[in-house]
Amino acid sequence: MAVENEILSYFEMCQREGTSLQRGMNFRLHGAYSVILMSVRPNAPYKDELHEEGAVLIYEGHDHPRTQDTPNPKVLKQPEYLPSGGFTENGKFHNAAQQFKAGEKAPDLVRVYEKLRKGIWSYNGYFHLVDSWQKSDGTRNVFQFRLEAIEEILDATTAVDTSFHKKKHRRIIPTYVKLAVWKRDRGKCTICGATNELHFDHILPYSKGGTSLKVENVQLLCARHNLQKSARIE
Questions:
Q1: The dihedral of CA 176, 149, 89, 144: what is its sign?
Q2: Which CATH number characterizes residue 223's domain?
Q3: Which of 190, 203, 220 is CA-nearest to residue 120?
């Protein structure tokens, strides 16, 4: 089971999702929720952005595969269709978002994993896919997708969340806070020094007025101590 703010390796993510996640956009895995990989690092291949204190992710679509015929995909318009006429992953996400905007269905559920640095990923929880569009980046048209962070759900057996009107938005821990906490705590649980099964933990929980925006309110805890702390919070 994925736990929000959990720290994983790429291999652990693939194990959890039961498939390779190499292409980064994975629409309705196993017929259920979708999975995307994001990064806001300066050298990231796509320009993903977090807004509204982490409550909103603007996710950039993906390019043509790099091949001998397309050695520089960054000069080509991001594709919506395959040569066969079917949707690319961009097209699948775009179609789902537009169906939601037209009132034809509830928003798709999307699990989001964020690359923090080489070998270190963070699970950012569930989002709703609520909008999509194409825009010029000055060279070519790219897809952008708006996803809104929601409270974690226990069961995601379908591709859409029919109870979305009841879901509260949440704010994820910003990347700069995660990186600063990782460096300060040296990649170890602050209680026992464990280096595996780590989580980013709010010292004062968000539900009790704590913030995700300050490094001082976030620490690294192993799974055992994270659960022990949660059990003590009423």
A1: negative
A2: 1.10.30.50
A3: 220
